[in-house]
């Protein structure tokens, strides 16, 4: 189901060659209606019970009350960043939705947690879960209903993307596991999680029309950027983590600002109706990103369930009174409004919010002011709007510290420069670079951390929270140095002055802090419009490092960045003896860096992205507006993002994904692979009763059988074990990573290797333990590589599909049938001049379908593997073309060799 089946590409390539255009010229997202009803997926008794309760509640609601539940009341019209309307008759207060993925935004007395990318860099599943739980406990204590996180979109396909740091890393498996664990941690605290941004939201440039046209002066811009991607990239990369989170029961999704294949994500029926609600079996509700809804009827019919935040003076709302009118005049059927309300209330009951509210009550803070007294909304009577509830706990503080600590990656360590110790022949330490210092603006920059004049503990934008305090590197290093009887000097200048030269020359070791930063496109920092302008270090750090290296033989660089940076100017210099990388570490940033430098902790972080040698190896940000005013972001890299690209095209990175050194030496041994679901053949045929058949008696539901997709995808089928030994000399943790390479099908390859497991293990020196990886069907997902494409007379793709009998447990979904199904209901004239491109000669069933709909021509890749109903097609006046393509033939032969049982089950003959 998840590996886009290879035959479709054979058909697509043939199609493009015949009709004579590239895929980008006619990129469009196909429609998919109607919106699937919630509560019909099955496979999760908890969802079923929640829908029963939701049905009882919604059945009592009037039309206007349902509209209230699905509509934001307006920007700054309630205490939270997002608020739905109340239903006072049923004693139901509106739902409070609040940023963000690393802590409670716009509130005091909360923890400033490390970012998502930092949690990903720990590669520690238990710690990722604990972070989600700790964050949710603070949201719950503030009276919030919906945590607007985690973020697994952007995926991080673009190294310079502004909001990559909110997610967990540039790999779908890592994002999926981390996202699912975070969802579980959040929702087990009795509040709802919100998985965002759905989907392919990979850059900040041109994400919103008004923001970039009116605020930033791009007057020629006429629409949001369109992320144009193929279906294989959609399934294998961008939808993968959302499937994992849906499988874990995430209660809500947030659709993104951008277009996907030239259809706005928040009114894209293919993404919301087909992918999320049907194929992935999503049972919760979909909410728009703030002001991301750009239509009324179109968005609602496409699957949007809640519009946020509602009206303000500059942005019209499309729900509220407008939604009432849509239902009253019949343009939106009432069953659709009922489903919207049902999905919201089912999610509400699913996480136990009814019980949480009894214990906590509503929001006890005001997002728009820290004053105790005020009026919300503005102009209403003055009352207490901020209770200043302190939600910080030992658990939240300990978790924030551990995540920051375990994320730090050691990239270079010549001659055991690190760690420092009392026995080290080092007495004079110089700390350099603006990244080691406190910002003159204090721990919290105005306007959502949008500054970079000191230590970088967070990116900027709506994904931030306010720090109650911030540990500063130079202060923490000084404290640790004092404990060991060492002296510390510092210089935070950003140019090479005589004073800087004096400082770096007369020290036993220099610690040079270098930073970069990024954030949301709503704010500009040092000329960076959210997305970084380049991969360079900020504040002249390269020059500072190189000068220190020419004046001193012992220099340690600490990189503090939200993503990959270019280190080529100095990384191989022999006097750069050690390098640490730390992503945004939250309120304990300085303390955890000092603890690693001085050996209180053995570094165990790993890079959750690749650092390149050449910036040209990074996928570029689309920064220019074309003549038609509609930016097109063609995902030409398809499935080859980050390390997949470097591996596929034999490019050597500076530091690969998953890289990180240790103060200890480690060894693997005794690898073992166990088949957990080995087929047990019966000793003799079972005497079934007369009339019984072993064939599947019923057709699978279109929603694929369960949350996250077919439940079988999540069944564990292999277990891999290995012995890990810490050879010493330090205690510490090691991240074992499992990569899998799939069989290659000539012209239709997969990346040489893909992450399919990670486990972090703590060991004392000279101790061993067994590391275990459990692999799911999803991790090996495939199927029968036969596909089809239906192309109109003028070259427009009407539908495309692939054989999904195995994925959907279907008796009929051959490639041609799936293609016709995905083309939707078309007028008869549309089929007459159309061409069906298919990998193989069509079987009798598919032949009959082509005849029934009057398809004008059938073009097959080859018929040596299988001969179907070609004669009948010709008899009925349908033109038949056999390309006799050798690549297609070899593809099928390799597949049959690899998976003979699947071939024989489908259309082969034993």
TrEMBL record:
User: What range(s) does the CMP/dCMP-type deaminase domain occupy?
Assistant: 763-880
One GO-annotated biological process of the protein: tRNA wobble adenosine to inosine editing
Q: Which reaction does it catalyse?
A: Hydrolysis of terminal, non-reducing beta-D-glucosyl residues with release of beta-D-glucose; cytosine + H2O + H(+) = uracil + NH4(+)
Could you say which residues form the signal peptide? 1-17
Location of the protein in the cell: Cytoplasm; Nucleus
Xref: InterPro entries: Cellulose_deg_GH3, CMP_dCMP_dom, Cytidine_deaminase-like, Fn3-like, GH, Glyco_hydro_3_C, Glyco_hydro_3_C_sf, Glyco_hydro_3_N
What name has this protein been given in UniProt? Answer: Cytosine deaminase
Organism name: Trichomonascus ciferrii
């Amino acid at each position: 189901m998840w590996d886009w089946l290879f035959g479709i590409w054979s058909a697509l390539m043939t199609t493009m060659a015949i009709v004579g255009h590239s895929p980008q010229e006619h990129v469009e997202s196909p429609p998919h209606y109607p919106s699937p009803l919630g509560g019909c997926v099955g496979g999760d008794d908890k969802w079923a019970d929640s829908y029963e309760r939701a049905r009882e509640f919604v059945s009592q609601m009037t039309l206007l009350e349902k509209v209230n539940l699905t509509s934001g009341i307006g920007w700054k019209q309630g205490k939270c960043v997002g608020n739905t309307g109340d239903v006072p008759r049923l004693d139901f207060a509106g739902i409070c939705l609040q940023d963000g993925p690393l802590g409670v935004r716009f509130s005091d007395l909360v923890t400033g947690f490390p970012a998502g990318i930092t949690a990903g860099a720990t590669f520690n599943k238990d710690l990722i879960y604990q972070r989600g739980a700790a964050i949710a406990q603070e949201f719950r204590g503030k009276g919030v209903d919906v945590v607007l996180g985690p973020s697994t979109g952007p995926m991080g396909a673009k190294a310079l993307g502004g909001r990559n740091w909110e997610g967990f890393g540039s790999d779908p498996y890592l994002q999926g596991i981390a996202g699912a664990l975070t969802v579980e941690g959040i929702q087990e605290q009795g509040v709802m999680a919100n998985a965002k941004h759905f989907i392919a939201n990979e850059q900040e440039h041109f994400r919103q029309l008004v923001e970039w046209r009116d605020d930033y002066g791009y007057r020629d811009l006429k629409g949001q950027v369109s992320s144009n991607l193929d279906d294989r990239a959609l399934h294998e990369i961008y939808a993968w983590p959302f499937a994992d989170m849906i499988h874990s029961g995430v209660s809500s999704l947030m659709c993104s600002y951008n277009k996907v294949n030239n259809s706005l994500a928040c009114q894209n029926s293919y993404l919301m109706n087909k992918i999320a609600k049907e194929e992935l079996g999503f049972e919760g509700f979909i909410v728009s990103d703030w002001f991301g809804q750009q239509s009324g009827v179109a968005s609602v019919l496409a699957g949007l369930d809640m519009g946020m935040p509602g009206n303000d003076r500059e942005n019209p709302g499309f729900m509220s009174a407008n939604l009432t009118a849509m239902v009253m005049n019949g343009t939106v059927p009432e069953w659709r409004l009922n489903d919207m309300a049902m999905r919201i209330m089912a999610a509400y009951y699913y996480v136990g919010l009814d019980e949480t509210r009894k214990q906590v009550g509503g929001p006890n803070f005001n997002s728009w002011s820290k004053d105790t007294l005020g009026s919300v909304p503005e102009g209403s009577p003055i009352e207490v709007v901020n209770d200043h509830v302190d939600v910080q706990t030992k658990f939240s503080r300990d978790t924030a510290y551990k995540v920051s600590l375990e994320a730090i990656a050691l990239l270079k360590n010549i001659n055991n420069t690190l760690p420092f110790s009392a026995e080290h022949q080092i007495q004079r330490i110089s700390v350099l670079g603006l990244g080691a210092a406190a910002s003159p603006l204090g721990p919290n920059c105005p306007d959502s951390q949008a500054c970079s004049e000191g230590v970088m503990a967070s990116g900027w934008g709506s994904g931030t929270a306010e720090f109650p305090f911030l540990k500063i590197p130079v202060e923490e290093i000084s404290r640790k140095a004092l404990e060991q009887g060492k002296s510390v000097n510092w210089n935070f200048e950003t140019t090479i002055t005589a004073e800087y030269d004096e400082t770096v020359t007369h020290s036993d070791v220099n610690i040079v802090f270098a930073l970069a930063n990024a954030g949301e496109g709503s704010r500009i920092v040092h000329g960076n419009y959210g997305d970084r302008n380049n991969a360079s270090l900020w504040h002249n750090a390269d020059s500072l490092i190189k000068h220190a290296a020419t004046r001193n033989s012992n220099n340690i660089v600490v990189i503090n960045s939200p993503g990959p940076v270019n280190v080529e100017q100095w990384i191989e210099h022999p006097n750069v003896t050690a390098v640490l990388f730390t992503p945004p570490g939250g309120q304990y940033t300085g303390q955890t860096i000092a603890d690693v430098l001085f050996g209180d902790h053995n570094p165990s972080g790993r890079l959750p992205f690749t650092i390149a040698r050449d910036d040209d190896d990074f996928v570029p940000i689309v920064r220019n507006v074309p003549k038609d005013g509609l930016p097109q972001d063609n995902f030409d890299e398809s499935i080859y993002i980050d390390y997949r690209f470097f591996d596929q095209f034999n490019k050597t990175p500076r530091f690969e994904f998953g890289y990180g050194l240790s103060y200890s030496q480690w060894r693997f041994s005794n690898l073992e692979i166990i088949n957990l679901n080995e087929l047990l053949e019966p000793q003799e045929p079972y005497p079934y009763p007369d009339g019984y058949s072993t064939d599947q008696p019923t057709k699978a539901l279109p929603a694929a059988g369960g949350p996250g997709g077919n439940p079988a995808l999540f069944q564990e089928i292999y277990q891999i074990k290995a012995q890990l030994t810490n050879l010493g000399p330090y205690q510490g943790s090691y991240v074992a990573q499992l990569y899998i390479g799939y069989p290659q099908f000539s012209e239709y390859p997969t990346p040489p290797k893909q992450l399919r497991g990670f486990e972090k293990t703590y060991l004392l020196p000279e101790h061993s333990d067994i590391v275990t990886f459990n692999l799911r069907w999803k991790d090996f997902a495939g199927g029968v590589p036969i596909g089809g494409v239906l192309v109109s007379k003028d070259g427009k793709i009407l539908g495309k599909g692939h054989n999904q009998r195995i994925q959907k447990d279907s008796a009929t979904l051959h490639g041609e049938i799936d293609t016709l199904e995905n083309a939707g209901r078309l007028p008869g004239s549309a089929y007459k001049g159309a061409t069906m491109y298919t990998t193989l000669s069509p079987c009798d069933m598919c032949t009959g379908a082509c005849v029934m709909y009057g398809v004008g021509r059938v073009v097959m890749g080859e018929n040596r593997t299988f001969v179907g109903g070609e004669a009948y097609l010709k008899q009925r006046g349908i033109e038949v073309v056999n390309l006799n393509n050798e690549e297609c033939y070899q593809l099928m032969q390799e597949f049959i060799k690899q998976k003979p049982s699947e071939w024989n089950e489908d259309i082969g003959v034993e």
